Every structure is written in C-alpha cells, then in structure tokens.
Amino acid sequence: MRNKTGKPDFSASAPPPPLASYDYPSLPITKNRQELISLIENNSVVIIRGATGSGKTTQLPQFILDYYSEKNAPCNLVVTQPRSIARWVARERKCTLGSLVGYQVGLEKMATEHTRLIYMTTGVLLQKLVGTKSLTEYSHIFIDEVHERTEELDFLLLVVRKLLHSNSRYIKVILMSATINCSEFAEYFGTPICSQMNPAYVFEVEGAPYAIEEFYLDDLCSLIPHRVDEPYITVEMYNVAVSLIQSFDELEAKDQRLGFKQQYSSSYVLVFLPGLGEIHYMQEALSKLVRKRLQVYPLYSSVTLEEQNGVFLVPVPGYRKIILSTNIAESSVTVPDGLIDFCLARHMVCDKETSYQSLRLTWASKTNCNQAGRVSKGYCYRLVTKEFWSNEIPDYVVPELRAPLANIMLKVKLLDMGDPRSLLSTALSPPNLNDIERTVLQHKEMGALSLGNNGQGQKRFDGELTFLGRMLANLPVDLHLGKMIVLGHVFGCLEECLIIAASLSLKSFFAMPSLQQLAGYRSKLSFAHGVRSDSIAFVNAFKAWHTSRNKGELRHPKDELEWGKENCIQIKRIREVAELYEDLKKRTSQFNMHVIENPLPMDYSSLHKQRFILQVVIAGAYYPNYFAQGEMDEDLSGHDPKTTVNLPPYSFLYYKQLQSLCGQVKSIAFDGSRGHVEFSRMTTRGSGVLPEVSLALLAHQRHPLDLFVHPSDEVESHAGSRTICHMRYVVEVGHFWGFQAGEASMEKQRYLTAEINSRELCPVPVSLYPNLLCLAPFSEGDEQDVCAALGACILLKETTLMPHIHGLPALITMLFSPVIELRTNEERTSYTGALCGLGWNVQSHEAVLPEHDTELAFDVKFGVEDITEINALCGAINRLVCEGPNGPLHLGPDRINSLQEDCRERLVRLFTKSPPREDLVPVYYEEPNKWNQVWWIPVKMEIVQKEDGKNKGVLFQLHPVTLLNM
Questions:
Q1: Which of 27, 476, 737, 888 is deepest in the core (most CB within 10 A)?
Q2: 195 assigned to some structural domain
C-alpha cells in the first residue's frame, strides 16, 4: 500500500511483536549487524557479498526485523528463498511457522496478515510484482543468489529496477551474492548524481563458516589422465571414485592403530553425479565390492518416496552409507562427512534457432560445487585437477538462454510499459533482437498475440495481447499446456486437460523403482487402457486414485501407500498433482471456465467419443510438434512390428528355453540366424502396438533374458576337437548405396568425387566457414569450439499416438495452423495439398517462420466444403473463447454448454465424414515451402474478419478458400 507521497504505508499493519532475548549464532555476518542495518536504512539498494553459509539469507532479514521491532515500527520483508529456509528461521526464533515468519512456494502458502518476514520463490515474487506493477506491498525486498543469473531472476531484477525508478522510490532493495565480482550488479542499480551514475554500495562479509578440507585428483593419484576436452566421466574416473570409497576403511583403520582421533571418519559419503545413467553405472560398480559393507542409495527426481526416506536413515552399525545423487541434493542434503564430486551437471539449455529445450552435460560452477561444510567441518574430494578447478571451472554459470523467452514475453506485455524490445533492452543481459522476434512469432503462432499485419514493420517485434495470452500469463504451467486447458474448455474435456496439465508440470507420479522399472512401465501401460498416450495414462491413473479416495477405500495412509505400491504410483507426487489441479481449477474458474462436478456416467460410445476429442485437443495444443510413424523394421523380416519382438542371433539354439520364458505366444519363428516372437492380437485390442511388445522391448533394455549357456572357452575347446575347418567367405555385405549407370548420374558422380578430392584439407585452428573440409581428430589445443553430431534421433517424451483415420494428419494441421495456402492441380479441379504455418512477409515475400512451415501432400480427397467446415469450426471456437474483450466472461452457463456441444459435434463430423473421403496418391508440390503461389488464380474466396472490439484477437484465423473449376 502507498500514501500520497509514494512511500509504503504500513500504518494499518502492526509492528513486529516485541522479541524475547535472542542470541544470534556465531556466523561471519553477525559481527557486522549494526553496520549493515545502517547501510540498508540509508541506501536504496545495497549489495551484500559473502561466502556460502556466512548467514546472508538467514540472519540479515532478522537484523532488520529486530531493528523495526525495537523501534516499534511496522515493516514487511520478503526474501527470495524456498520454504526450507523459512522453517529453519522459524525454528531458530522459536515461533510458529506462518505467524511472524512464513513462506509462499507455488501452490503452498503459510502466512497470515501478521506475517512480517516471508520467504518465497523468485517466480512467485515476480508474478506478484507484475500483477500489482508496484513494490510498495513490501518495505524491504531481499533478492538472494543473484549470481545464478537465471532468466527469471534477470527479469525480476529488471522489474524491480524499473518500478524502483518510477512509483516505488522508497523501497529498500538488498541483493545478496556469493560471487567475487559484484560490479555488474552495482552499476546496474546505480543512481544518477550530478550527471554521473553512482554505483550501488557493495558490502563484503569476510570469513567462512566452517573449514573444508579439499582434495583434488592430483592429490589422490597422479597416473590417471584427466580429459578436459569435453565434460564426460571415463571408466578410469569411475574406478578412482570406487577406490576412494574403499580407502576410507583403510584410513580409519590406520588412525585407530596409531591411536589418533578418526579424522577420516566418513560413515556418510555423498557422490555427486550429473544424471541417472551415471548413477546406475556407479551403483553397479559399487555392487561388485562384495567384501565391503556399503549401503548404496540412489537419489534422483523419479525415485520413490521410500527410497528417498532411506537416504536420511542412520546407517546400520559397521556399514557405510553411500548416496549417489544428482544436483537435487545440492541444497537439500547436507552430509557431515565425505563428499565426492565429479564437478559435472546437466543444465537445461535452449536452442536459439528452434527454441527447443534440452539437457546438456556441462562443467558445474564453483558456486554449485561449494556445498560441503555448510553446517559442519567436512572433507571434499573433487575429481578434477587443482589446476583445472582454478582455471577452467567457472565461478558461476551465466546461461545465454536456458529457457525460451515465452513466459517472460507475456509478463512484459502484462506490465504494459511499452515495446518489449525497449523494456528488455534494459535487462542486465539483454536478449538478442532475433530471440525477441522469434518469441513474438511463436506467440502469434500459438494465438497468445494477435497476428495483425504479420511480419510488417514494428509488428515483427510486438503484438497485441489476446485473451488467450492474458490467460496463459496467469497460469503457472507451460504455454502449450495452458492452450490445452483452453481447448479443453471449448470441447468439454476441461477436467481431463487440467489433470494432464498438472501431471506434466510436475515430476511424474508413476514410480520407476531402480530395480523394478519393468513393473513401473507395466502399470503405466495398464492405465493407458489400450491408448498409446502418456497423457491419457495420467488421466486414468489420477481418476482411479481420486475415485478410490472418495469411496473411502484409502481412508488410512497405510492403505493409500499400499495402493500406490501395488500400482507403482508415488502417493506424495500424485497428491502434489491434485493440489496443482485444484489450483488450476480455481484459476480457470476466474475466466468463467468451470469443471462439471459429478458428471453423468458415459456409455462406451460416449467414452470413445470423449477420448478421441481429448486426443485432438492434445494435438491442437502442441501444434506443430507432430511426428509421423516410421516404416516397418527390416530386421523383422516382414513381420508386423506391432506384434513382433526380435531375438538375438542364434536364438534357435535355445528354442525350448525361449518357449518356457515367453509363455503362450502365436509363434516363435526363425529366419536364418534371427528369431522372432510373434504375439496374438485380440480382436478387441484394435490395431495398435501390443502391450506385450512394449514390455518385451523395455525388458530387453533393462533386464535381458537369462539363458543357460556354457562358458565360451569350454564351447570353443569342445567344438575345436570335433570340427573340420573350411575356408570361410562373406555371405552378406550389408547395406550399400548405388546409383543408375546412366550418363547423367555418372557425370554427377565424377563431379562430386573431383570436387571433394580437389580440396585441400585444413587443420581446425584456421578460421572456420561453411563447407570447409577439416582434418580429424580435433586436438585439445584448437581455439574454436567445433560441434559434431552424435546421432540423428530425437527422443520424444509424454507422447500421444493418434487414431488411424484417413486424412487425420492433414485435418489436424489445417485446423490448428494460423495460416494455410491451398495447393491445386494444373487444371484447378482438385486440391493436392496445403502449406501450413505463419504465412509470409508481404514486403520481402519470405516465410515469416519457415522452420515451422509444413508442406502437406493430401492422401485423401478434400473439397471446398471441407475447408468451409474447418472455417466453421474455427468460428465456433472463436465465439466461445474470444468474443468480446473479456473472452467468455460475459457468457452464461447455458450459452457455454450450447457452444461447447456445437464445437464437439462439428469436430466429430469433420473427422468422421460419411461416406469416408476418397483415397488419393499424394502429389508433392513442385515448389515446396514457398508461399504466395496462388496470387494468379482469378477466383479466390477471401474470408474477412473485422478486428473490432468484439472480434479483436481471435484465437483462430479463418482461411481463404481457393475455388475449384467444376
């Protein structure tokens, strides 16, 4: 709240209650208490620099709280840290969490009107400031860990700086960092004085909380080569870690013999590894140490709650507990004994060209590695050389772009402070103009920003926020999931879409126990109910759990845990999904989108229809992320890959054992040295991939079939004594490439060979340019980063396989594409295909977003009436969610039900046309992916939509229809 002078007004709020005698812990920051209070009270922005564990996060806010309590003055403090810190501070002050000290993290809020010190995540604070466009709700804002430089944190700094210089001049801002160099932050928050920028004050907290004895690879062994050309764990480095764990016993025994205090006691050892694959490898290596008494616990995001709890149990006397963890334990697990760190981490990065995110293995920063010794003395073993640690490991990671600008762009539009380019240019690390343009175009493709004059002038970098965009900005989920929720409301499956959005936004509640992953996959497969969709499996599992709870079958926690164990579902995580589901339901209700409570039971036909509509909604939300099913695997010798599993070579030797292992199957056939197990298809299962095939493939990846075979040396000696050897010859040379022996082909071949062989091979240190042929391998001394493709496969997660309907790919793409251009044959008597995407720039005649353009070649016959039906469905959707400036807020329940039923019927009629559309042989357009190819056609029916107050910012544009000659 603010008074007329612009100062924060907390007169209606009571001051902090009088505090009992409180002894501050002996931390480095404690001795600077009075000096820090004075600095904060006399400066608008103060930057506090101190080592991890110096007390910045926990003690400094308490200094200010106590100061205002002594003055009997009101205050309201916010700190950007998770709830664990709030619990620690409340316990330290012996007060109830949620009273004087509280927190707000995502859905969970534990605070009252009397709370004076609240801890919240960066995202929650950012959402609040964007919504209020002011800082005056708080007297002091503490922004911690500013050195991490995430995109969200950078935008929070931008918003705070912008508001601090406009309508919130009297708010105190405190930035806290563990990095050595704070000059960048000081200059960013500088104050103009006498035509000069005066940087913000930087105060350094001297000293470290506890001594940490650090060891490096060259302290452990000097014979192991350390590769630094790329972040990777070699077999030798795994062996070093295993040997180090083994040596702890020897060191302890040596101390005991000499009568020394056990300074190497490491009953707990935490090993930091970058990912799940590395954890499994290390776990397998430790399992071979049969003589060592070790309790090994993997700790990563998808382990069960029981496995997580085992990490914190006291080890059995005489045993050593080994925790193999990803960076999930950097701040949540404090091990008082030993820490082994490979100094590697996987970070989410975003490709600048495609905006697709992926996990990339990189060297961790010093800030992330400095975790031991936060609460007590500890020993840290870093498996890199000391020189590499000092010179190559970065102090902190500054990601160029770890996540797309999509969410940030919507918040910029909600702030309504001008052109996104101008506002984002004031960021600490401004994004590239190309990134801003690409983000704007992707929002237009999604419907969050209006198309307007697409690709022209300033509209390339801006667009008007639509009703969908406003809604997406207020939903705490990925933008595609937010669009799915809106489409779910349109087509009457809002409940299912809310469940999917909640499930995909959090860690999967399907348990994958480290030694029983096949059972976990089997459970997920059963919940899919024969539909090849991870999303629908989430829906069915959630509804089954929710129904059992409502019936009282899971009244006791023990019963619920047992149910989760039987179904391989993690109860804690499915409860978190339920909380997010309820939160999303409340948020959507504010936009007049309501879940139908206690719906009537559906018959089989209605269930089938509802499932199909849900699949279309999922596809619409994720346009244009569509993939076609690959061709049949040639290794199956013509067998159906949906019902057949391939066996290893020479499997016919174990025919009887295979029969007993596979059980009742349709057949076990052999083709030469290869074998195939074919499963029978039940008539009620449709034509999809059989569950037996999926389970067999997963079982082969995790637990191969165990066959009883003789040792190889015994077989060779036995066979050699009875075998007459003949000369062997090559039966099959495998794949090869060929070309026609015509003169034209031969000329091309000669030209290509001469072109390649005539070039001089250059070493990499020269300046690289396209089409340059370089010598390999690349040396470690190369000055330039050279990327090599490691594979041509894309890993798809949380997929949905669409039903087999003629023409479905083309219909889906045309329905949800912002712009389409129809292709016709030369006689203009039929449509042959369509180009779908974001259209073209009318000035440059180039595609606006070419990488998202899709050239379709129709395999069924579409007519003018089909395109008209698509436009009619788009218009029906627009009437439901886009009419008027407030979207559906002005519609009553009866009107909403009527429009929903109209959309559902139009959708089903479009995809299930009777009689079915005729099949066509696809004819590919001679100039694919080229726009504006129908300008010469004399008859073209343009669909004009007026962007007045009623139809402004529609979700789907109506497509122009090229008329055909009859």
A1: 888
A2: yes
d(CA 219, CA 120): 42
pLDDT at 903: 95
Alpha-carbon span 492 to 506, nearest angstrom:
24
Higher pLDDT among residues 271 and 150, named by residue: 271
Same domain for 600 and 685, yes or no, is: no
Q: What is the pLDDT of residue 546?
A: 93
How would DSSP label each residue in 42-83? H-SEEEEEE-TTSSHHHHHHHHHHHHHHHHT----EEEE--H
Instruction: Please answer whether residues 786 and 778 qualify as being in contact, where contact means their C-beta atoms are separated by less than 8 angstroms.
Output: yes
Instruction: Establish if 255 belongs to a structural domain.
Output: yes
Count: domains in the chain: 5
Distance (Å, whole) CA 343 – CA 916: 60
Segment 825-843 shows an average pLDDT of: 89
Integer-rounded Cα radius of gyration of the chain:
32
Q: How confident is the model at residue 157 (pLDDT cuts 50, 70, 90)?
A: very high
CA distances to 158, 396, 504, 531, 916 from 168, rounded to whole Å, are 14, 31, 38, 54, 64
pLDDT in tens, 274-315: 887 788 888 888 888 766 788 888 877 666 656 666 666 777
Exposure of 942 by Cβ count < 10 A (0-12 exposed, 13-18 middle, 19+ buried)? exposed
Same domain, 174 and 224: no
Q: What is the pLDDT of residue 524?
A: 81
Residues 610, 639 within the same domain: no
Name the residue range of residue 609's domain. 466-621
- On whether both 49 and 198 belong to a single domain, the answer is yes
Model confidence at 26, pLDDT cuts 50, 70, 90, reads confident
The band of 192, judged by pLDDT with boundaries at 50, 70 and 90, is confident
Q: List Cα–Cα distances, 347 to 362, 392, 475, in angstroms.
A: 7, 17, 24
pLDDT digits (tens, 9 = 90+) for 778-810: 444 444 455 444 445 566 778 888 888 889 999
Contact predicate 284/239, CB 8 Å: no
Q: What is the rounded CA–CA span in Å between residue 210 and residue 374? A: 7
Identify whether residues 163 and 60 lie together within a single domain. yes
How far, in Å, CA of 221 to CA of 207, rounded?
A: 31
Closest CA to 78 of 88, 69, 65: 65
Where does residue 742 rank: exposed (0-12), middle (13-18), buried (19+ CB within 10 A)? exposed
Using DSSP, state whether 732 is helix, strand or coil. Answer: coil
- Distance between CA 650 and CA 648 in Å, rounded? 7
- Which of 222-236, 480-494, 689-703, 748-762 has the lowest average pLDDT? 689-703
- Secondary structure (DSSP) of 542-558: HHHHHHHHHTTTT-SHH
**Residue that finishes a domain, picked among 661, 687, 713:** 713
Q: Which of 84-88, 213-217, 734-738, 812-816 has the lowest mean pLDDT?
A: 734-738
Confidence (pLDDT) at 454? 46
Fill in the DSSP letter of residue 849: S
Helices (H) and strands (E) in the chain, counts: 30, 26
End position of a domain, from candidates 366, 391, 416? 391
User: Are both 889 and 855 inside the same structural domain?
Assistant: yes
Do residues 166 and 121 share a domain?
Answer: yes
The pTM assigned to this predicted structure is 0.69
Same structural domain for residues 46 and 107?
Answer: yes
**Contact in structure between 901 and 810 (CB atoms under 8 Å):** no
Please check the confidence at residue 316 and state whether its pLDDT lies above 90: no
948 burial via Cβ count (<10 Å: 0-12, 13-18, 19+): exposed
**CATH number of the structural domain spanning residue 673:** 3.30.70
Q: What's the rounded Cα separation, in Å, for the pair 321 and 299?
A: 12
What is the spatial distance between Cα 950 and Cα 928, in angstroms, rounded to a whole number? 37
What's the CATH number where 266 sits? 3.40.50.300
Examine the pLDDT at 223 and tell me if it is beyond 60: no
**Residue 783 falls inside a structural domain:** no
In this predicted structure, the answer to whether residue 660 has a pLDDT above a threshold of 60 is yes
Nearest to 483 by CA among 496, 495, 469: 469
